[in-house]
Amino acid sequence: MIINLTQMQPGEAGIVREIQGGQGFVRKLQSMGVRPEKKITKVSSHFRRGPQTIEVDNIQIAVGFGMAKRILVEVAR
């Protein structure tokens, strides 16, 4: 099942399938280690529209809600 990052539950893991956005947006995420075919784990999220914390390669990264909505992840539920 493919969902966006904001729909994942804390502790849930998945594989990044697509990053929707322009070249600059994609490049910014890739510089942080978030790229297609990479395994990520959602660590936490704040209430409502707050930042989403994810773990990629044993590094925790916080991305904004708007950015997180454009990261599509395949999870096994």
* Backbone CA Rg: 11 Å
Class from secondary-structure proportions:
alpha+beta
What's the name of the CATH homologous superfamily?
A: Ferrous iron transport protein A (FeoA)
SSE order, one letter for each helix or strand? EEHEEEHE
Helix content: 10-25%
If strands are numbered along the chain, what order do they take across the biggest sheet? 1-6-2-3-4-5
Shape: globular
The top-level CATH class is: Mainly Beta
What's the domain count?
Answer: 1
Characterise this structure.
With 77 residues, the chain is α+β, with helices and mostly antiparallel strands. It has one domain (2-74): Ferrous iron transport protein A (FeoA) (SH3 type barrels, Roll), CATH 2.30.30. The protein is built from two helices and six strands; from the N terminus they run E-E-H-E-E-E-H-E. The protein has a six-stranded antiparallel beta sheet with strand order 1-6-2-3-4-5. Strand 3 (39-45) and strand 4 (52-56) form a beta hairpin. The longest helix is centred in the middle third of the chain and has 9 residues, at 23-31. The model has no long low-confidence stretch (mean pLDDT 94).
Question: Can you lay out the helices and strands and say which pair or pack?
Answer:
Elements: E1 2-4, E2 13-19, H1 23-31, E3 39-45, E4 52-56, E5 59-63, H2 65-68, E6 71-74
Antiparallel strand pairs: 1-6, 2-3, 2-6, 3-4, 4-5
